[in-house]
Amino acid sequence: MSEPGRTSSHSKSRTPGRTPARSASHPASAGPPAGLREPGGPGVPAARPASEPAAGPGENGGDWLSLADRIAAHATNFLDALAALGRGEGGDEVVPLLLLEVAQVMLAGAQLGASRDVIPSGNAEPDVGADPDLDELRTGLAERLAACDEYAELFDPYRDTKPTSFRLSDDLAAIAADLIHGLRHHQAGRTAEALWWWQYSYVNQWGTHGGAALRALHAVVAHARLDVAEEEIPG
């Protein structure tokens, strides 16, 4: 997905590149799909002025602005919920609540994956500052998920042949870091950069972490509902 020449302010080891244009036969070439439910609750950003430049090429600038605001709202809601659950506000329901939150933010990510590539005008990503310190969040989630934090996953089901051990708390913190990075662009009014970052990091990192976490959380819920202790039959 990367293209040489795109430099990033992000300090992680990976260096994002501009995503190349997809072929015309790809269903994503039609632009941002409609139908993503508008999230509610605190943290929903105010609508951007109609005069703001479009976030991507083509004639549907308003669609791109609307998509950026929806993704920003979903990201903010996810981060707020994650912080609350990390503080222990979910009680015994932390796993099903996380399942719901991850599923909702992955729906937003799927919209990015189904949209045509966002190509900002410059070759260098504007600086967004230092990476967020998410150690407290990661530690809090690890404590709440102590019984199920570690799980095994084929990170790439088409290339990996042996499962690798992962942690839900690490996955969730990784998703949070990428969403925060894009939110900083969005809050600074750089809609194209926000969409480019969210889209690139969705296919490159946070979408993979989210998909793996969703499967693991679903497995925990499924085992809790379906596993029944064998009853001892009197002899």
Can you offer a commentary on this structure?
The protein is mainly alpha-helical. The protein has a domain of 144 residues: Four Helix Bundle (Hemerythrin (Met), subunit A). Helix content is 48%, strand content 3%. The chain is built from five helices and two strands; from the N terminus they run αααββαα. It has a two-stranded antiparallel ribbon with strand order 1-2. Helix 1 packs across helix 3. The longest helix is centred in the C-terminal third of the chain and has 36 residues. The protein is globular. 35% of the residues are buried.
Task: Write the topology of this structure.
Blueprint: H1 61-86, H2 94-114, H3 135-144, E1 150-153, E2 164-167, H4 168-187, H5 191-226
Antiparallel strand pairs: 1-2
Structural class: mainly alpha
- Tell me the CATH architecture of the domain at 61-119 and 135-212 and 220-226: Up-down Bundle
Considering DSSP H and I runs of 4 or more, what fraction of the residues is helical? 40-55%
| Count of helical stretches | 5
Percent of sequence in beta strands: under 5%
Let me know the average pLDDT: 79
CATH level 1 name of the domain at 61-119 and 135-212 and 220-226:
Mainly Alpha
Low-confidence segments: 1-7, 11-31, 33-60
| Strands in their spatial order, largest beta sheet | 1-2
SSE pattern: HHHEEHH
**Radius of gyration of CA atoms, rounded to a whole number:** 19 Å
> Cα distance, first to last residue?
64 Å
Quote the CATH topology of the domain at 61-119 and 135-212 and 220-226.
Answer: Four Helix Bundle (Hemerythrin (Met), subunit A)
Shape: globular
